[in-house]
Amino acid sequence: MRSRLIIHAGFAKCGNASIRFSLFQNFWKLQKHNVFVFDKNLTIARTPEDLVGTSIWSVERARKKTENLTQRLAEEMAAVSRRKADHVAILSAENLANPGMAELFAGVDSQFEVCVIFYVRPQLQWIPSAWKQWGLKTGVLLRDFISQCIEARRPPFRAGIQSWVYRKASTRLKVRLEIPASTFRFFMSSRKTHIFLPTFMTTA
Predict the structure, then answer these.
(1) Is residue 127 part of a domain?
(2) CA-CA-CA-CA torsion for 72, 108, 118, 57, nearest 10 degrees?
(3) Is residue 100 part of a domain?
(4) Percentage of residues of the chain with pLDDT beyond 70
(5) Which of 2, 80, 169, 193 is the most exposed place for a label (fewest CB within 10 A)?
(6) Is residue 134 part of a domain?
């Protein structure tokens, strides 16, 4: 049986801190079930403390150098497979949906059974959250920030997902909506609210 690799590829402002905390908090429980996690240096974490920090900077450096990460991940997972025959590894980095990131994993689906997962939020949640983090600090008014996002089609969920669809045809892709129950009811009933997803993409 091939090793399994789960790639949490994005998006920014879509629960990434909560995901990292959950992996940290449940580290030993995951280890017990042969689930391993890549740390900020893209090596398999040995302790929960290894998960402090984020791997976004390591993958960004790899993108700038056009480094193929498949072999790097394979070497790490090979060391684990010598001890654990049936195992899963998780790589979580919110910027893996950015342009040029999918190309870093050329050949990955020939070595592992791969599943790429994206978490998305509706614009009515994402835009105000992004404005508080980026726009407010620079003095941009919320209404202007909203206009900029609509014009630029931000958040770029569709483009980010499609970059993996086109590059990794044999890889399973999952899109999960991060929506509280109250917002979900409004979201589903509003014809004016859209998430820019490919028409052929389903959620799971």
Answers:
(1) no
(2) 20
(3) yes
(4) 83
(5) 169
(6) no
